[in-house]
From TrEMBL:
Entry keyword Transmembrane: no
Pfam families linked: Lsr2, Lsr2_DNA-bd
Entry's Gene Ontology molecular function annotations: acyltransferase activity; DNA binding
Organism whose genome encodes this protein: Thermopolyspora flexuosa
Residue ranges of the region described as Disordered: 51-81
Occurrences of domain Lsr2 dimerization (ranges): 1-57
Location of the Lsr2 DNA-binding domain: 72-107
InterPro entries: E3-bd_dom_sf, Lsr2-like_dimerization, Lsr2_dim_dom, Lsr2_DNA-bd
Gene3D superfamilies assigned to the protein according to its UniProt record, in alphabetical order: E3-binding domain, Lsr2, dimerization domain
The protein, known as: Lsr2 protein
Length: 108
């Protein structure tokens, strides 16, 4: 017995049939939206004045900057240890509160 799976796109704007998934980014956030040909054209026409005056950018550098800002595991362990010794609330896992990191950096 054969199985056939169909992927049907629904226009995220008006609920009709979509023909494509459009990707775009703004303010460092990346989005995808399923649109009909007509709505995709409207989106592109609305963005065109800005796109024609913009320069292309590689999204990788911003990701690199974020990863450089992120705290290494070793430093996280050091901050957690310091925070506990100071009596500050800090979780065993996950992200360390910015206020705790800031106090650690001020102390060092």
């Amino acid at each position: 017995m054969a199985t056939q799976i169909q992927k049907i796109l629904i226009d995220d704007l008006d609920g009709g049939t979509a023909n494509e998934t459009v990707s775009f980014a703004i303010d460092g956030n990346y989005y995808e939206i399923d649109l009909s040909d007509e709505n995709a054209k409207k989106l592109r026409e609305a963005l065109n004045p800005f796109v024609t005056h913009a320069r292309r950018a590689d999204p990788t550098p911003s990701r690199r900057r974020r990863s450089q800002r992120s705290t290494s595991r070793e430093k996280s362990a050091e901050i957690r240890s310091w925070a506990k010794a100071q009596g500050l609330p800090v979780s065993e896992r996950g992200r360390i509160a910015a206020s705790v990191v800031e106090r650690y950096e001020q102390a060092h």
